[in-house]
Design goal:
Layout lengths: L7 H7 L8 H26 L13 H6 L3 H32 L5 H9 L6 H11 L8 H13 L9 E2 L5 E3 L5 E3 L10 E6 L22 E8 L23 E6 L2 E7 L5 E5 L7 E4 L19 H26 L3 H9 L4 H29 L3 H6 L11 H9 L6 H29 L1
Parallel strand pairs: 4-5
Antiparallel strand pairs: 1-4, 2-3, 3-9, 5-8, 6-7, 6-9
Helix pairs in contact: 2-13, 4-8, 4-10, 5-8, 8-10, 9-10, 10-13, 12-13
Organism: Salinactinospora qingdaonensis
Membrane topology: Multi-pass membrane protein
Protein name: Sugar ABC transporter permease
Length: 441
């Protein structure tokens, strides 16, 4: 009996190539790997989160209840919200700006390489780099070195912040930080001696010369401020020795009735003169500004700024990624639309805001959601950059999960509960991204 041509049986019998089920043979290794690498850990984490720290007693949802009543979890969740809101937005905007600028730059390729280069560096290495960048000491931390340089350009630092008066020579430290003569003086008195200590020779300005005793004047008050120290201990306290240097640039003030009536700076040899003072008694003092501590910059890794500082490091790493994707989207925008807007009289800002950005919105959304997924799992930068004293303030869910499980807590039941919670937060963004890709395809 023959089978009529065109029937399903005939079609199956006449089909060339192996049967469809044979493809499973080639997919099996990948499926096994996927199951062992992803499915099993997820299922085991859900299972382990229902047991106690040692894994010997079933506790049900107790770990989840404790997780949501633990203050450290709320701090981590708050910081994760800050990360999700701020970091993807800042990185996406920076990538958009860089991508638009590179279209008009002469050295666009070189600029893109420089911006994208941090992507080749691991998060661990990036964290080490920015831990040094945010060092408090301006001699080591780049961020504070820049801030102190700019600050000192407009507001000069104190001349001798470590200086203090020589004891037993009639100088007293005032509550406001100034150093004053114990006794008041009048025009014609002097010359006044104001010996100081606490300054190393190499801290003196390059123009400092040997201290000299100034000539007294009948119409004014003169004196000298010098470093009252002689190497070898052969000098005399309160007396100008031949090898002792003046302290130039010290601000000296004449005070009368609690009001500064005159102010001068010392010369290279430490001398100063108040001329044209009216008759009366004055208190001569070294201004408090001479001894204020130099500006040391910002405490980047303190409790207040540690999270924004780490987000800055994240921006440095991921700005190149956003720039490349946005630049690819820019290259696909029809130039006719941009030129038509310009012909209609639109400014460059209007073209960017009403034409470029709307046409780029699908790409910007992909970049934003991708960054949001990565931000939810942020761990490396926080762990490396935040010092131990402020890690509680910079804590995020992934770091809290590691800390509870392996960083001293040794409670893998609670750590698994945190891992499941983090997975629940990440899954919606992943589903949204996958559906979007399917719609585009």
């Amino acid at each position: 009996m023959t089978t009529p041509a065109g029937t399903p049986t005939a079609q199956r019998a006449g089909r060339l190539g192996p049967p469809a089920w044979f493809a499973l043979v080639f997919l099996l290794p990948a499926l096994v790997f996927l199951g062992a690498y992803m499915v099993y850990p997820i299922l085991f984490s859900v299972y382990r989160s229902l047991w106690d720290a040692s894994g010997t007693e079933f506790v049900g949802l107790a770990n989840y209840v404790e997780m949501f009543t633990d203050p450290s979890t709320f701090v981590a969740l708050r910081n994760n919200v800050i990360w999700v809101v701020v970091a993807p937005t800042v990185v996406t905007v920076a990538g958009l700006v860089f991508a638009v600028l590179t279209e008009r730059m002469r050295w666009a390729t070189a600029f893109k390489i420089v911006v994208f280069m941090p992507m080749a560096i691991s998060f661990l290495a990036s964290g080490v780099i920015f831990r040094l960048v945010y060092e408090q000491d301006p001699d080591r931390g780049v961020a504070n070195a820049v801030l102190t340089t700019v600050h000192d350009t407009f507001v000069p630092s104190a001349a001798f912040p470590t200086a203090r008066p020589r004891e037993g020579v009639g100088l007293t430290e005032e509550p406001n930080g100034a150093v004053a003569l114990s006794e008041q003086v009048s025009p014609g008195d002097g010359p006044l001696l104001l010996p100081m200590v606490g300054v190393a020779d190499d801290e003196l300005p390059a123009g400092a010369t040997t201290a000299e005793l100034p000539q007294s004047t009948a119409q004014g008050i003169s004196g000298v401020v010098w470093l009252d120290f002689t190497r070898g201990g052969t000098g005399r306290n309160g007396v100008i020795d031949t090898t002792e240097s003046g302290m130039p640039g010290m601000r000296v003030q004449a005070v009368r009735d609690d009001e500064v009536v005159a102010s001068v700076r010392t010369d290279d040899n430490g001398t100063f003169t108040f001329a044209g003072l009216q008759e009366g008694s004055y208190t001569v003092q070294l201004a408090a500004a001479n001894f204020t501590e130099p500006y040391q910059g910002v405490t980047w890794l303190g409790p207040t700024l540690v999270t924004p500082a780490i987000i800055g490091a994240y921006l440095w790493v991921w700005a190149g990624f956003a720039m490349v994707l946005v630049a690819a989207g820019l290259s696909s925008i029809p130039r006719e639309a941009l030129e038509a807007a310009r012909v209609d009289g639109a400014t460059e800002w209007q073209v960017f805001r009403r034409v470029t950005v709307p046409l780029l919105s699908p790409v910007l959304l992909v970049v934003f959601v991708t960054l949001m997924i990565y931000v939810l799992k942020i761990f490396d930068l926080v762990f490396i950059i935040a010092p131990g004293s402020v890690q509680a303030d910079a804590n995020v869910l992934a770091l809290e999960m590691w800390r509870v499980s392996f960083g001293g807590g040794n409670d893998q039941g609670m750590g698994s509960a945190l891992a499941v919670f983090l997975l629940v937060l990440v899954v919606p963004a992943m589903i949204f991204q996958v559906r979007r890709f399917r719609r585009e395809n």
